[in-house]
Amino acid sequence: MTVPELFGYLLVGLSAIFFALHWHQWRDWIHAPSNSRRREFVRRQLQRRMVASALIGVVGAAITMVNQLPPNPLAMTMYLLALLLAVGVIFAIGLADMRAARQMQHEEQIEMLAAEFRKATAELPEQGNS
């Protein structure tokens, strides 16, 4: 077995592990309390991550099949372009996931600051009457 085949099998195994982790997160999500915005965020995040995990498995499976390609330049070029496209999509999904997580974190911080501000302004008139 060649090094690329071993790497491909490693990617397929990694994909399976990621799917198992996402499945457990999905089951936890189903039973989580319904905070609509946070719940929707987690649902979309899990969907993105499942697609990326599936693509990792597809890339791994494609790498293991490199020896099955016809030995002509066009087939190898198309194969490499397809692999590069899949890897690019995986990275794009990862960047979108990071951006969405950062945006959700900022929104939660803004909500927390707004709640603190409302609490502080509600206490102001009480202090003025004393």
Overview of this protein structure:
Keywords: Membrane, Transmembrane, Transmembrane helix. The chain crosses the membrane at residues 6-25, 46-66, 78-96. The protein is mainly α. It has a domain at 47-121. The protein has three helices and no strands. It has helices at residues 3-30, 36-64, 73-129. Helix 1 (3-30) runs antiparallel to helix 2 and helix 2 runs antiparallel to helix 3 (73-129). The radius of gyration is 23 Å and the shape is elongated. It starts with a helix and ends with a helix. The model has no long low-confidence stretch (mean pLDDT 89).
In short:
Keywords: Membrane, Transmembrane, Transmembrane helix. The protein is mainly alpha-helical.
Give the biggest sheet: none
Secondary-structure element sequence?
HHH
Give the helix/strand class: mainly alpha
Count of strand segments: 0
Return the average pLDDT rounded to an integer. 89
Instruction: Please state the CA-atom Rg, rounded to the nearest Å.
Output: 23 Å
Helix % is over 70%
In DSSP terms (H or I, runs of 4 or more residues), the helix count works out at 3
From the spread of the alpha carbons, the general shape counts as elongated
- End-to-end Cα distance, whole Å, is 82 Å
Q: Runs with pLDDT <50, length 5+?
A: none
Q: Hey, roughly how much beta strand do the residues contain?
A: under 5%
Keywords: Membrane, Transmembrane, Transmembrane helix
Transmembrane segments: 6-25, 46-66, 78-96
